[in-house]
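Recap slide: Clavesin-1, sequence and predicted structure.
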Amino acid sequence: MGPVSLLPKYQKLSTWKGDSGKMTHLQAGLSPETIEKARLELNENPDVLHQDIQQVRDMIITRPDIGFLRTDDAFILRFLRARKFHQADAFRLLAQYFQYRQLNLDMFKNFKADDPGIKRALIDGFPGVLENRDHYGRKILLLFAANWDQSRNSFTDILRAILLSLEVLIEDPELQINGFILIIDWSNFSFKQASKLTPSILKLAIEGLQDSFPARFGGVHFVNQPWYIHALYTLIKPFLKDKTRKRIFLHGNNLNSLHQLIHPEFLPSEFGGTLPPYDMGTWARTLLGPDYSDENDYTHTSYNAMHVKHTSSNLERECSPKPMKRSQSVVEAGTLKHEEKGENENTQPLLALD
C-alpha cells in the first residue's frame, strides 16, 4: 500500500479560477471556499503568487549566516500564508525557521518518527491529533499534560514530537490557510511535574512554535488548570507576542466557555464533546505505520512525508506503551456544563490572557 493521505476525503483538486479567471498550480487541491478565505484573510492573490514567492527568495542573500536548506515555491508559500503575505515578515519567519534548527542541532538529529525519543512521546499521546477539523476547518491538537512521565519522556522529546507532527500536518495547504487549535488538559498535572517546566525549556518551546514555525494558531485553550499553571504563565509572558497572548484562553472547569469557541460535535468526551474518548495511539499509528505496535497489535500504513520514515522493524522494549491517565474532565457525551442563569453568555472564555 502507498502512503496514507491526511487530506479530507471530500477535498478534491479545485478548478476555481477566481475573479481574474486564473489559478496557479500552487493552489491546486484547495476548495473554492478556502481559496476565497485565503484571498480575504491572507491577501493571497493568484495573479502575483509567484512574484510574492520570488521576492521572499530574493531576500535569502541578505542572511549568508543561515543555511536555507529548502527554498522551493511550495515551501516558501507556507511562510507567506503564515504572515498574511507580508514579504518581509514571511522572510523573517523563514530565516528564524532555519536558524532555530541551526542553534538546536541536537533536537533535529534523526528528526523522524522512528527516533526512539520521538517515538515514545508519540505513543504516549504527545501530541493527540483529532481526525476531523472544527467548523472553521482548523486541525485540533490535544495535550493531556498529566500523561507526561518524566522518567520516560524528556520535555525536549515531547517538543520534537510536536514539531515533527506539525511538519507533517503543514504539508496540507488547507491547514496552511485554516490553521490549528491546541487544547491542553491540565487535569492531575502535579506541582512536581510543573516544577520541571523551567523558563529555559519553556522559552525553547515558544521560540520553536511561536517564532520559528509557519503555522497559524487560532487559539490555545487550557482546561482544568491548577493555580501553579497561572504562575507559569507569568514566567512565559515576556516571551509571548501580544497576538499570542490574546489567543490563550483559560477555561478552568468551565467547558461551556470552551464550547462557545469550539463546538462540542468536534470534541471528544474528555472535553464534554459528543465524540468518543480520544484514543492516544491514533496519531502515533498514523506516523509510525508498521513500526507501531501495542498490546492490541495495531498495524497501519504509514504516512510518508517530510522527515517521516517508515520501517518494518519492531518497537524497542523501552518504547512499549504504559497505561495512560485519562482526563478527569470527562463528562457524559453530549452533556455540557451550562452557566448559571444571569451569567455572561457572550462567546468569550472564562479568562483571556491579554
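Residues 87-103 form the longest helix (17 residues).
The chain is about 35% helix and 5% strand.
(End of recap.)
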